[in-house]
Design brief:
Layout lengths: L1 E7 L2 E7 L4 H45 L7 H10 L2 H20 L4 H25 L1
Antiparallel strand pairs: 1-2
Helix pairs in contact: 1-4, 2-3, 3-4
Length: 135
């Protein structure tokens, strides 16, 4: 006998049932799907943050360069000086493409991958905004 939760309508009901009963299996599946839905929501939200942050990064970098500021990343500074502003946009597309490939290869790590791209992107936007407002 196992004690657990089963879904009845919209409510979770505390109950006791046999370990191999259909109710036990259904309750276990419901818990798995509920957890998966929450993880999907978090992951989708993080990827949305990534897209907004990358877009704002490109835009704020453009504003800074247009105002006469220098790119802080020496590799991107070299690329922008040599190939134009499109090099920055291309680099961002490359990063997003690589993140997407890693996400496809490791679907269980989607939240971590999105977070790994979102954090530095958001921090870069914050640094860009601070630089623009104090320059």
């Amino acid at each position: 006998m196992t004690r657990g939760w089963v879904i009845r309508g919209e409510a979770m009901v505390d109950t006791t049932f046999e370990d191999d009963s259909p109710s036990y299996v259904a309750a276990a599946e419901a818990r798995v799907w509920a957890t998966a839905r929450r993880a999907d929501t978090v992951e989708v939200s993080l990827w949305l943050v990534v897209l907004v942050a990358v877009t704002l990064d490109v835009y704020t970098t453009y504003l800074g360069l247009s105002a006469g500021l220098a790119e802080g990343n020496p590799i991107m500074r070299w690329a922008i000086e040599g190939y134009g502003f499109g090099a920055l946009a291309l680099a961002k597309v490359f990063v997003l493409g690589c993140a997407g490939l890693v996400r496809e290869a490791r679907p269980d790590d989607g939240v971590v991958i999105a977070l790994g791209v979102a954090l530095p992107s958001v921090l870069t936007v914050v640094a860009n905004v601070v630089t623009l407002t104090t320059a």
